[in-house]
Amino acid sequence: MTARGIRAADDLSQDVVYAGFSLGVPAAQQLAQTREGSKGALFFHACLPTSEFESPWPVDLPVQIHAMNEDPFFVEDGDIDAARELVKSANHAELFLYEGKEHLFTDSSIPTYDADATKLVIKRVLEFLA
């Protein structure tokens, strides 16, 4: 899946903001972290250690990470630790933790959707992109 995401970006200009949701985060993170000209990154429900990729996180590359504070995938799998490390290592990085335990809380097509949290995510993302 990650390789397909990387290949899909071949036709994009380099000056974009990369975004990924859950299993899409590895591709978005690798592209943002290693592709010259990246403008930023948005990670939803996941984050990997920056050491997973061939170069460190660019210190001035903006990033937002959004997840629920008790999401077992985000917390127990170590994503929260990776997110906190990324925030400490970058000049323009934010980790937003929302109350709850749902993994894909921004997906309105499934029962775990949280409309209030998603509204706040959208507000923060739009401010990031402005």
Short structural description:
With 130 residues, this protein is α/β, with parallel strands linked by helices. It has helices at 2-8, 25-34, 72-76, 79-89, 115-129; strands spanning 17-21, 40-44, 63-68, 93-98. The protein is globular, with a radius of gyration of 14 Å.
Question: What does this protein look like?
Answer:
It contains five helices and four strands. Strands 1-2-3-4 form a four-stranded parallel sheet, sandwiched between helices. Helices cover 37% and strands 17% of the residues. The longest helix is centred in the last third of the chain and has 15 residues. The chain is an alpha/beta fold and 130 residues long. Helix 1 packs across helix 2. Helix 2 links the parallel strand 1 and strand 2. The termini are far apart.
Q: Tags for this entry?
A:
130 residues; 4-stranded parallel sheet; alpha/beta; single chain; globular; 4 strands
Detail the topology: elements first, then pairings.
Blueprint: H1 2-8, E1 17-21, H2 25-34, E2 40-44, E3 63-68, H3 72-76, H4 79-89, E4 93-98, H5 115-129
Parallel strand pairs: 1-2, 2-3, 3-4
Helix pairs in contact: 1-2
Q: Could you report the average pLDDT, rounded to the nearest whole number?
A: 94
Q: In angstroms, what separates the terminal alpha carbons? A: 30 Å
Low-confidence stretches: none
The total of beta strands comes to 4
Note the beta-strand portion: 15-25%
Helix vs. strand class: alpha/beta
Order of helices and strands: HEHEEHHEH
Number of helices: 5
